[in-house]
Amino acid sequence: MAGAAGCFIPRGARAATKILMPDAAANRRFSVLYQGNKIGSHTIKYSAETGETLVETKISLLVKAGIFTVFSFRHRSAETWRAGRLVSLRSSTYEHDTTLIVEGTATPEGFRVDSRGGPFIAPAATLTSNSLWTPAVLEQDFVVDAQHGGVIGVSARKVGVEDVIVAGRQIHAMRYSFITPYLAGAIWYSQEDLWVRGEFERDGAKIQYELDT
């Protein structure tokens, strides 16, 4: 996920799925489970104002063994989108006792990302690693890493439609498998292209995402 100062990636926006900005009806709140126990939450909230869409992401994970903290992770980000294009990003991530700040803004040259790794220019039609609200994110070659800065590669494939239980009811959902340098697993989208379930592996640990609302 490390950025490269001053580099430009000319590819990355090859999505065939049209990127439609969500509205408040698509707000997500997932419980994050590890070995059947809830260890945190992942929420996505949308709001629209003056022709722009604000997408706020919050992730909070905590694993303890008795009084000892085994793993702690917190992520907050705010993305501003206009006419289907990312125009600004600001995020803060706490992991391994380190806080990382990532900022980005649209420029005539592309989307500029500034982080601890230095500046990076991504394609103007970029998505971020937080863009799991659209299956189009899995059709990218690269996405902006909203947690560490720079860009990361994405490799994904469509597995097929499965019946899954979401918020107590059974629905048909399209399953995708994917891998990035830091995360791998499976993710499900409803027939309305809404994110409804996830199973991820990170640092050797498998976690499940169950949709609350």
UniProtKB/TrEMBL annotation:
InterPro entries the UniProt entry points to: DUF6134
Highest taxon, organism lineage: Bacteria
A Pfam family of this chain: DUF6134
Protein name: DUF6134 family protein
Organism: Dongia sedimenti
Taxon lineage: Bacteria, Pseudomonadati, Pseudomonadota, Alphaproteobacteria, Rhodospirillales
